[in-house]
Amino acid sequence: MGKIVRAFKRRCWKRTGFCIEELFQSNQTIMLIAILLITSVLVTKFSTRLGVPSLVLFIGVGMLVGSDGLGFVYFDNAGLAQTVGTFALVVILFEGGLETKWGVIKKVAFPALLLATVGVLITAGLVGVASKFIFDISWLEAFLFGSIVGSTDAAAVFAVLRGKNVKGNIEATLEAESGSNDPMAVFLTISFIELIQQPEANVFMLAGSFFWQMGIGLAVGLAIGKIGSMSINRINLDSGGLYPLFALSFALLTYSVSSLMQASGLLAVYAAALVIGNSELTYRHSILRFNEGFTWMMQISMFVILGLLVFPSQLFTSDVVGKGILLSVILIFIARPVAVFLSLGTFPFSIKEKLFLSWAGLRGAVPIVLATFPLMADLDDSQLIFNVVFFIVLTSTLLQGATITPLAKKFKLAGEARENPVHSLELISIGKANVELVEYEVTPTTSINGQSLESIEFPEGTLINAIIRRGDIVTPYGQTVIQEGDILYILVSKKNKSELQKLLQAETLQAQI
To answer: Residue 118: beta bridge partners?
Structure first.
């Protein structure tokens, strides 16, 4: 009987060339992906209790099911890992930019830019010098080491700071730095690989390439971001569920156009997301919630695949662990603090704030993805570089990521953890109507704060549908008094929306959901 089943599974249909065995393999692959996703989602609960960043556990899941673990998957395709990692970073940066308020980030734009350029350069230089003596390699290979781990990681920073309520300008600086420092790290990494392979390469041409990447990447991002926000608001789609996909398509378009122009695609995506996220945006709530969920999925996929790519038997050797720990200590306790204090020397950050910025410079997916570049270039010490960089990332996320919250509290830089209000409001078929549902949070400076609804001169036809107050829903009446922190859901005709905006006197009007 067993022979018959095996013969049946191997039999191919002559007309289609389709094998039953291939169907079984496909089903097994789908089941494995489902199990990995379920497991990764569930481990996020343990990460909160253990105080360990979830991305470390995602990597652990990948290492567990890999060839050196349970042996379910054999994976050594650095090119595929690089592709998945890049796609995931595009999604993560886009979601981070959508959630970032320009009014906050513009205050720290210059110091964040210095950290993203001068800070990365200083970090790469100091780590490079240390790598030269630790690994006894050439100077070019040593500075390649430093370049790969020189930048902080947006995926790690966004994930660890989510909901921590760190002091506004500190959190904004970290997020802006991590969202914009990839061009410098990518430029340095590619440049040193080229110098290793082609010693006669022109250094001045490589330097000009950096300014091209930064300038054109920023310009492309701003331009496509403006086009994207206008398109989302003006094109009336048949289903509200299409708007999140429409928004994400502009992120992918931004990256591809910028990359084809040899500019920084990741910087362009972050710039486009800032423009879109800070515009009056139709279906904002749906777009944000979709991207939040999709970002989690891409983080899980990326870190699991990166975990699959590493072989623990090669990673946890005495040579890699010993030298990796030494280089991690130099990066975390010397290179990063020196880079922060030198870059921010003239800015009004306190000593505690600079120390916190130094400690919160997490390494994550970006260094690991960059570590695949030497593998793809087939450099002599590429496997050593990848293993050590991977170990540094594990050390950084475990040590720094797990202690960011306690350190923020010790330095009195964090308030109570943010909690998302437990409420939702879904609308059906409003896309074809000539009205919008506006979500607006009342601030201390809002003109209607402290007034009763009947005393407020709303535009004609405006209706307050609901008020969310401290997580509870309040049915609005004429005598209901608006309070600070209230979230109002206001139904207004599109022609009167600008008049409502003037009434609310908001810096940014939260648009239709």
So the answer is: none
